[in-house]
Amino acid sequence: MRKRQGPGEFADTGPQNVLAQRNVSVLPSVLSGLGFSRLVTAILFLAGFGAWLISSEETSSLSHSYALCSSSGARVYTVDHVVPNVQCLVVEGSLIFDTGSLEDVMARWVASGRLRSSLQIHYLDKSSIVVPGLSDSHAHILEYGATRELPLGGGKTLEDTVALVRQYILDNNDILNDSSKFVEGWGWDHTSWPAEEWPTSDALEMDPIVRGRPVVLQSKDSHAMWISKKALALSSPLPSEVEGGVIVKDSFGNPTGVFLDNAQNLVKRPAPTEQNLLRRFNTAVTDALSCGLTSIHDAGFDPVSLEFFKRQAAAGNLPVRIYGMRYFEESSPYWGNLSKPIINAGNGRLNARSVKIFADGALRSGGAALHEPYCDNPHTKGFMRLDPKVLTDVIPKYLRDGWQVNVHAIGDYANGVVLDTFEKALKDVNVTALRPRLEHAQILTKTDMERVGKLGVIASIQPTHAISDMWFAEDRLGAERVKGLYAFRSLLDHGSRLALGSDFPVEDMNPLSGFYAAIARLSPEGESPSGPSGWFPEQRLTRMEALRGMTIDAAYASFTEGDLGSLVPGKRADYVVLSQDIMTIPVDQILNTKVQATVIDGRLAFGQV
Which residues lie across from 123 on neighbouring strands? Predict the structure, then answer.
């Protein structure tokens, strides 16, 4: 991309990295007075975070004030109804100063008493566009970093997956030489194996390298855990039953090594160290920025991760904006009236003003709570992870105490129960001030689709789940009930506001994968059970609807639409430069699009402008 200092005049300006300047002054206070172990932790974080800063500083050539323009046409998508496309975006400091044609913004710049030569102008490549900073409305940041340590998604059979665990042990001498060290991995998917059945601890014992070690492996959807015999022994004794969960057992009543939903809490494993958390955080943030993500809604702050993110915010070490949902634990005392929401900590980078409640399990693992039995397992309807009476009790309390309530609900029965509770709790209140959310909202009856819109409940959806689940969904739900699964168009047409996310690491972090899935309902290879027209193509979103779902509507879902989500004067200068116009190119070319730059608060966080 080219830069100019005013019309017809090139300039060579040095890096202007506000974050880098700020963190230089933080360094002495971070290191002073630390003991050895804490010093190691600090160095580990600064090494990873410093690499991000150096990369950003090296590529940044943005002055305090600048304009980013297309050389011809209006290739800046503002996601503003009044002026949806403009030629230029003008940034001053961390805010958007102006938008419009080059002639108009320059005239207003000069009219405001500024020198014409003080506005640095950058031109997009001919094929590039600018969109508002992209948001992921449902993700798991630290868990994503953990999955990169031992990813299991490449295991296409049970044996392949065990082989991945074996290779990980062989590649890490500290684990290889100490059989007491835990081996943790993420991403196995039994629904993609030739024999679609649960794995067992016996399968792990078959490999001599893996045998005898404590192994804990999280499933792709995070609703199942597969553990070794050693880990099983360390977690014993086990109860006979678990409310809201299942200990999978053999015909003799013995645990087989798989734990579903709430039963996963029975598995004992070491808590992550600060070094673990920092490493996972750095991995996730680096990848997020390279994908064009400027805001992430983390769908599950437990006490450890909450305190971790608070520490990073206090130190000014959050390269992306994070909107956190605090976990609700039924066994813990109610905290909604004792704890205050976190709003705009770390210079607007951290917010945690919502509570995340699990109503049921997942479709992939058979835990989604349905009205009628599963077609491929008629002995079960799935299960609720909470007694509906608990929802009736705590949801009104959290709303009353000023917390946004976000409820994980996948099955049609679970969604109905949650909507019943919302309907009672939202009577005679300002829904706009509360903004309750259905996280996933996967299977709904026609009546409940209408209710979501009428109640003003936000549907937080993940389009990539649809193209992952479409291959087994009809077998599981039947030809009629499956029509209510991932019915995005129906939700929108009934007045729902859609906030789009990925649920990473369950699915691909790249927001363009979600954009593609929402408008195509095809696999990346262009396939679906219904053929090349897409899986239930009548449920596709338009490109603008999908873009809104990951920009302005995602901002609304996190109470930040006044500052983020669209490119209009006065808002934060968060934007992304893409190599192609995803709003017009053929659908099959969308996934070839590259992120050229990710900008937060007017400063480069990734790439070049």
Answer: 2, 69
